[in-house]
Amino acid sequence: MNVVFFGSSDYCLPVLRALDKNFDLKAVVAKKSLQSASLSPVIRLAVNNNIPAYTPSDKNELESLKDRLNKISPHLFVVSDYGYIIPDSIFTLPKYKTINIHFSRLPRFRGPSPVQYSILSGVKKSFITVILMTGKVDTGNIIFQKQYPVNPSTETTGTLYAKLFLLLSKDLPAIINGYIRGKLTPIPQLGRQSSETRLLIREDGLLPFRLFIAACRGTTKKGFNSPDFPPESLFLKTLNKTGNLIITIERAVRAFDPWPGVWTVIPQTLEILKNKRLKILKVSIEKNKIIPRIVQLEGKKPVNWKQFIEGYPHFLKVISNSG
């Protein structure tokens, strides 16, 4: 069976290998990297296995691949973590259409950031849903949906994606064969249970300094409609839902790892460090306080909290001052 894979991130590699091993993988399409001139791991794997690889930089370039993809006589396109909206002129080409792999219990958490929203929401179960692609994002009929034994409340976005991709890669050949042979019948989603996600931006990770200090002191209170947050801040939105600063920070540190991270801006009152960004890379909760574990000062390497405090002892005085 002729298959084409659309996927861009490093997380996709187990799925790509499963497709190459079990089907006739005719081509790989990945989003062109704007950060690096070197080949991405997805494209490198394709090239090393003599599989044609394409890296369109926008929707127009993607549509220009239509004739090339059509000449493959594709039976199925498989999409996961690709990065572009695929136009219907492309996803309707294969005989058995296009399936999309989504990392939530659809229709919950539709859109580009299901894993991040799952962690922020505090869900304790991980689901993967495989759907038929339609013109409206993540609304297609469900072919396969399964709970996997990974608890999002103990994972970062990076570790959760990696584990789920690996688990799915073991099931994917059977899912595809079951769908093609008519053993898996697509069923509509229940729209009344739907929710949406959006792409994250750097500002989503901003934690106002006064709230960071409050969380370290354990002196938190409800009501966080702070002008210190950027407009439409996902951090603030989550905070207003939970009503708990400590829990929200712990979840956000994991949800925004590896990107955009949780970070704060040190105020001018701390002369040596004023206006520098401090990334909060790892935290724990003890006695209803946030305990920073690993931090990274702007322009420096990550260090544990003890090392940071030893280097900047006046920072500890700010936290210790309960006034």
Automatic annotation (TrEMBL):
UniProt lists the family membership as follows: Belongs to the Fmt family.
Q: Which UniProt keywords apply?
A: Protein biosynthesis, Transferase
Top-down, what is the taxonomic lineage of the species of origin?
Bacteria, Candidatus Gottesmaniibacteriota
| Enzyme's top EC category | transferase
Q: Does the keyword Transferase apply?
A: yes
Q: Which GO terms describe its cellular component?
A: cytosol
Please name the CDD domains in this protein's record: FMT_core_Met-tRNA-FMT_N, Met_tRNA_FMT_C
> Formyl transferase N-terminal domain spans which residues?
37-164
- Please state the Enzyme Commission number of this protein: 2.1.2.9
Pfam families reported in the protein's UniProt record: Formyl_trans_C (PF02911), Formyl_trans_N (PF00551)
What is the name of the protein in this document?
methionyl-tRNA formyltransferase
In this chain the Formyl transferase C-terminal domain maps to: 248-289
The record's annotation in InterPro entries points to: Formyl_trans_C, Formyl_transf_N, Formyl_transf_N_sf, Formyl_transferase-like_C_sf, Met-tRNA-FMT_C, Met-tRNA-FMT_N
- Single GO molecular-function term? methionyl-tRNA formyltransferase activity
